[in-house]
Each structure stands twice: as structure tokens, then as C-alpha cells.
UniProtKB/TrEMBL annotation:
EC number: 2.7.7.87
Organism: Candidatus Vampirococcus lugosii
Compartment(s): Cytoplasm
Protein name: L-threonylcarbamoyladenylate synthase
Keyword Nucleotidyltransferase (UniProt): yes
């Protein structure tokens, strides 16, 4: 496990994109709380379930590279982008629930063909955009324990299981608003 200053990470995206493509696991700041994640593949999904000690019936969300990627891969309405941007601008962070166009797409993510999808309001989004593929996102804590946003907690709980902890002084500690876009923009949280 290596601790990296978030600004250094942002200045060296090319290197960390290669690391992500080599299945490295990251703890990273989002626009809400710290997340733990990686590129999406079956092996990484299993690793993150094990790291978090998470019930395998609880799906992970993803960070999408951009809005066009979302519209290409998920069922969206004609006014989706407008509504999405409205919710994104007016909330600290959002997760939208969408149905996949093809159930073979991201086969190990989501449940009943539905996936939680995020676009972040911080520089980690630029990293995912550069990756140009889905990135697993889930809270950086052991399942069924309180969320603690503390560098020492991350080191203690995850040091042997994650590759990088991105340290940032941004403190939010508020979960994202969840909006089900499969049900006429129904706010779930």
C-alpha cells in the first residue's frame, strides 16, 4: 500500500491509469465520502467484496467516464442529461439508478439489470474520464461498520489489501443522493 498526495496523483494521471489497468485497488476522495474501487472486472469485484467483508448480494455502483458513455450504455430518456445535470448541480453528489441497455454489459455489476452510476464533482472524475471505462465505487469502510474518514483508519483496515490511498484534505462525509432514473426520477435518499 502506498499513500499518495491527491494533487500528485492528479499531476500523474498517465502513470495511475496504467496502474488502474493493471487491476490496482484505490482508496480515493469523491465529492461525498472516500471510496474504494478499481476498474470493473470479476477479479477486482471479488477482491473488493473481500476487502470490505461485504455481502455479495449488495451491488456496487460505478463512476462513469462521462455523460455520453452513460447514454450509450444505459436506458435514458430524452431529457436525461438535463435532469441529471440539474440534480448534479443542486446536490453535494448523486448516484443515479439506471437500467443497462444490454444485460451482458458489466455483467457482475448491479442487480436486476440496474446499476448505480455516478459522475463525480472532483478531480477523480478526470481520472475516470481518462480511463474511459467504468470504475467501481463504494464507501471506504468495512461493511456494517460506521464510516470513518480518517487516514489512519484506512491504513489500519486496508493496508494489506489496497494498492493506493489518495490523501486529500477535502472533508465532506455525506453520502450521495440516490435518484432512481428507471422510475421517473424518484429520489430514494
Amino acid at each position: 500500500m502506498e499513500k499518495i498526495n491527491f494533487n500528485y496523483f492528479c499531476d500523474n494521471f498517465d502513470f495511475y491509469v496504467k496502474e488502474a489497468l493493471n487491476n490496482k485497488i484505490f482508496i480515493y476522495p469523491t465529492d461525498t465520502i472516500y471510496g474504494i474501487g478499481s476498474i470493473v472486472n470479476k477479479s477486482n469485484i471479488e477482491r473488493i467484496y473481500d476487502i470490505k467483508k461485504r455481502d455479495k448480494n449488495k451491488p456496487f455502483s460505478i463512476v462513469a467516464p462521462n455523460i455520453d458513455w452513460i447514454k450509450e450504455n444505459f436506458i435514458t430518456s430524452n431529457d436525461f442529461e438535463e435532469k441529471f445535470n440539474f440534480f448534479l448541480e443542486n446536490n453535494h453528489g448523486i448516484t443515479v439508478i439506471l437500467s443497462k441497455k444490454n444485460n451482458l454489459f458489466l455483467p457482475d455489476i448491479g442487480v436486476n439489470n440496474k446499476v448505480g452510476v455516478r459522475i463525480l464533482k472532483n478531480n477523480f472524475q478526470n481520472f475516470v474520464t481518462k480511463l474511459n471505462q467504468a470504475f467501481i465505487t463504494t464507501s471506504a469502510n468495512i461493511s456494517n461498520t460506521d464510516y470513518i474518514e480518517d487516514e489512519k483508519y484506512f491504513e489500519e483496515k486496508f493496508e494489506k489489501n489496497v494498492d493506493y490511498i489518495l490523501i486529500h484534505n477535502y472533508k465532506k462525509s455525506v453520502e450521495s443522493r440516490i435518484i432512481d432514473f428507471t422510475d421517473n426520477y424518484k429520489i430514494l435518499r
